[in-house]
Structure prediction request, 282 residues.
Amino acid sequence: MTNKHCFEAPDKSLRDILRSTDDKSENKPFGGMTVVMGGDFRQILPVVPKGRRSHIIDASLKRSYLWKHFEEIKLTQNMRLTAHTNCKEEQKKTKEFAEWILSIGNGLAGDKDDESWIKIPKDLILQRGENEMEAIVNSTYPELTLKYNNIAYLEERAILCPRNEMVDEINSYVMSQIPGEETTYLSSDTVCKAISAQESDDQMYPKEFLNSLKFPGTPNHELRLKVGLPIMLLRNINQSAGLCNGTRLTITQLGKWFIEAQIITGTNIGNKRHELFNYEAK
Prediction:
């Protein structure tokens, strides 16, 4: 759910733009244009960095001056239940899970003494073993070393993590399980000199500091890959070819300046693509 200010900004812009054609647009929400929004306040709330509960609630669309102008339409039929019409047992499990999720959103699944604590059913919990990474990977990807080249096997599986640090840990463990030689790529670690910059400015950004920087959505300075490793695109490169943000692929070839991979999701499954990038193999 996006912060309320992301809706208020286009509202003010549209009012200002459309008043040139209609004087009354200045006093109408979104300049009189019809806007349709979708979401669930019980599942996805605005992200407020280091914000408390009150800050998150205050940033929601319901606290905006625009909310009184919306007509709320609720969806009441669970479409997931219709997917198991021929299997009553699966339909029952899906219905129980849907009702449990709904109870969490309604605030009814909390502990009697403390509503902030929710008891998770045992069948949804992965039991912790001696090696936590091994337990997670083996539960999601059983027999990984034998089936990592199977497109159907990879397409229907994924591990979701709450933090990027955990993503890096799981990725490193999965790569260690896949056979083959590892290739390491290093990013550019130099500062572009500006006309107004002084020579002493370069000393403010040593390579060790640049290499330690980590940004969401951007690969780290050191990128380690293997042939056969599943990867995911983070940018829209070529939508007509199926290379979009979120597309999953498996690496088929690693060159010095390019990566060749086979698409395993979407409408272009099986197609091989190779793209240049600004990393250099070490």
Q: What stands out?
A: The chain is about 25% helix and 10% strand. Residues 88-105 form the longest helix (18 residues).
